[in-house]
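Our consortium's second objective concerns turning raw sequence data into structural hypotheses that experimental partners can test. To show how far this objective has progressed, the report includes one record in full. It was chosen at random from the queue rather than selected for favorable results. The single chain below, 343 residues long, was entered without modification.
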Amino acid sequence: MKLTILVSLGAAALLLAGQPDAAVKGSYERIKVHGRSLEGNLEGDSPDRDVSIYLPPGYKAHPKQRYPVIYLLHGYTDSDDKWFGLVKHFVNVPESADKAIASGASKQMIIVMPNAYTSLEGSFYGQSETTGDWEDFVVHDLVAYIDAHYRTVPNRESRGLAGHSMGGYGTVRIGMKHPDVFSSFYAMSACCLDAGINAPVVNAPLEALRTPEEVKAAPFGVKAQVSLAAAFSPDPSNPPLFLDLPIKDGAPQREVLARWAANSPIAMLDQYVKDLRTLKAIAFDVGLQDSLIGGSRQFDQRLQEYRIPHTFETYEGTHTSRIAERLETKVLPFFSAQLKFAR
């Protein structure tokens, strides 16, 4: 009997320490969160957003325990249901989290992902009259809701921000601007770090698009630029899409490209050096076969110039390959080491 009691107490201790038995798994919830910051957006998207939540194995077993939170942002054309296993995808967050915790590579944390799939297939987590203020939605609306409804450790030291592709961009943008809310960030395969100002401008197909349905049916590179325009160069006086394109009558529009550049983390960095230095940890990675690798290398160089501590890794992989593996073996262990846990 004594031996049984000791084993049970030991198992409970492992749960609290974030190292449960491999058979123990976390749970999943999908809820709606109202975003005041998204009300009245010109795209007409609902301000009531789906949000996927991973609760670690000990959450239900230990009703007084509180946990740090990772806010995870998905990429362009993606959605939270894909990332959380409701649709077969290149990553499954609960599966990766369960593996990381079971192996002892990660402590137990809550993981939260809002659905940022819009009528133009992605918000880019910016501040725009057209898409809505997604930056404020994440920083204020979502964080406040999660802290009010779940057993979080409600302070910056226990909040991390991560994301992939468009979500990697959102991670860098939001992380550098709001170190009072998030203490650490990890960007995976981030897009748009230079806001696409060095990318070739697409010609006629871009100007011909007039409806969200036409945008969705367009080639990826074309529709991505329309969505970037909605986020970076909104124009309430220019229906039906309420945006200014980087091309007009076949000619590049310098004023629009300047507005895009203003949303570039590489360009913004000079303004947020002090904020970046207050972060506990900064990390980002990108595959060697990813066409977006140039932006990450530039961002790494700019951080080095200011001597801002950070970790930058490259690995053999494309834009979407090995993301589940990286989440399990790199991202979650990073936050496990950097975030502050409840005693």
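The partners drew two points from this record. The mean pLDDT is 91. Residues 2-17 form the longest helix (16 residues). Both points have been shared with the crystallography group to help prioritize constructs.
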